[in-house]
Amino acid sequence: MRAAIILALSTMAVSNAYAEATADVQAGEKLVKSQCISCHASSFGGDGSGIYTREYRKVRSLNGLKAQVTNCNTMLNLKWFDDDELQVVQYLNQTYYHF
């Protein structure tokens, strides 16, 4: 029984890693440009990317990035699906964070 649980958890972890690796980064970029930049630019100036590159940024890990994207989706009522959030996380991580 214990081995079955460990196998199930391992399979879930591999599935999650695969999903993250195959997320459509370009789709994430489009979502960021159409839904996020205007708010970030009004708060941080310029093109809004300062929110990702500032020294005192809130996001310090991949899990933190996922949580922040989910928070923005919820608070701004963007109505993104889980796949949309994943694509945004992949884009932001590839472009700015490099976790």
TrEMBL record:
Gene3D superfamilies to which the protein is assigned, alphabetical:
Cytochrome c-like domain
Please state the span of the N-terminal signal peptide per the UniProt entry. Answer: 1-19
Residue ranges constituting the Cytochrome c domain according to the UniProt record: 23-96
Indicate yes or no for the key word Repeat. Answer: no
Entry keywords, A to Z: Heme, Iron, Metal-binding, Signal
Q: Note the InterPro entries from the entry.
A: Cyt_c-like_dom, Cyt_c-like_dom_sf
- Under which name does UniProt file this protein? C-type cytochrome
Q: Which organism is it from?
A: Methylophilus luteus
